[in-house]
Design a protein that fits this description.
CATH class: Alpha Beta
Structural class: alpha/beta
Radius of gyration: 17 Å
Shape: globular
Order of helices and strands: HEHEHEEEHEHEHHEHEHEHHH
Largest sheet: 8 strands, parallel, barrel
Number of domains: 1
Number of helices: 12
CATH superfamily: Aldolase class I
């Protein structure tokens, strides 16, 4: 049954996936809400742009699944919520908590996939332990319900040096955490790009045949994100999961269509730039 849902997630033309992540409101950080203040409008715009999937929380998934028609993007359901995204780590309690009856809720919402974090945060080993426990609980349920499990390995920089939610693009750190995610039973990996995009094949290698979708990270210029995307696809990535570079873009529909053309049609950066402005 997992293969049935994976066929809904990965585009038949290219075998790749473009998932737009719009689950940022789950984490109680005001800076994450820029561009997604009205989720009904955001989701409608993205549906019109036509990515392969949209990543949402339980509370927002209804706005996608209530839309009529057969051609809307597949749902990737975010399953966990954490409090580690601020500029300083909480002193008393750092957590990554899983929604209850996760797979049953995913099936009820007709999700094609679920997504769960695997954090590695300097000074917060207990959060890593909670993430491992979450994945270990989720794995047998995913197998039982035939629901693909996307694991999101995130290697943070120290908050004191980089502020909140700044990922570490070190090839070794990413590769090792991706390998742990695969060992824990991931069906799909959602990982950060390496600083040297030309080395991303080492991350693909560590995934051992599990498809790797690459996170977009913080907002950058159109040319930077398109050039990075091209390089990652050339290194063997199976697709992308971009959030802020889509939802905070002045033309979310245009950038989505440009990225879709890169991911599925293999067009170059200059041609993709033309699609953004129409």
């Amino acid at each position: 049954m997992k293969s049935f849902r994976l066929k809904r997630l990965f585009n038949a033309k290219s075998g790749r996936c473009f998932d737009v992540a719009v689950d940022h409101g789950f984490f109680n950080q005001p800076g994450f809400l820029t561009g997604i203040e009205d989720m009904r409008k955001v989701i409608q715009t993205l549906v019109e742009a036509g990515p392969d999937a949209i990543q949402l929380t339980l509370g927002m998934a209804r706005h996608l699944q209530e839309i009529q028609g057969r051609q809307k993007p597949s749902l990737v359901l975010r399953t966990d919520v954490a409090n580690v995204y601020g500029r300083t780590l909480p002193e008393n309690r750092r957590f990554s908590l899983m929604i209850k009856e996760t797979m049953l809720q995913a099936v009820r919402y007709d999700a094609a996939c679920v997504c769960v974090n695997l954090f590695q945060i300097p000074g917060a080993p207990e959060v890593h332990a909670e993430c491992v426990e979450n994945i270990l609980r989720l794995k047998p349920e995913a197998d039982y319900f035939g629901m693909p499990m996307m694991v999101e390995p995130l290697v943070f920089q120290p908050n004191a040096e980089a502020g909140g939610y700044m990922v570490n693009g070190d090839e070794t750190a990413i590769t090792h955490l991706v390998r742990q995610a695969v060992e824990l039973g991931a069906d799909i990996i959602k990982a950060d790009p390496t600083v040297n995009v030309g080395r991303y094949h080492k991350v693909i290698e560590a995934a051992s045949g599990i498809p790797v979708l690459v996170r977009g990270g913080g907002r950058v210029s159109d040319r930077v994100i398109l050039e990075r995307t091209q390089g990652l696809l050339e290194q063997g990535a199976s697709g992308i999961v971009y959030g802020r570079n889509v939802i905070q873009h002045p033309n979310p529909k245009g950038i989505t269509q440009a990225l879709m053309a890169m991911v599925h049609d293999g067009i170059g950066v200059d041609d993709a730039l033309k699609l953004i402005t129409g």
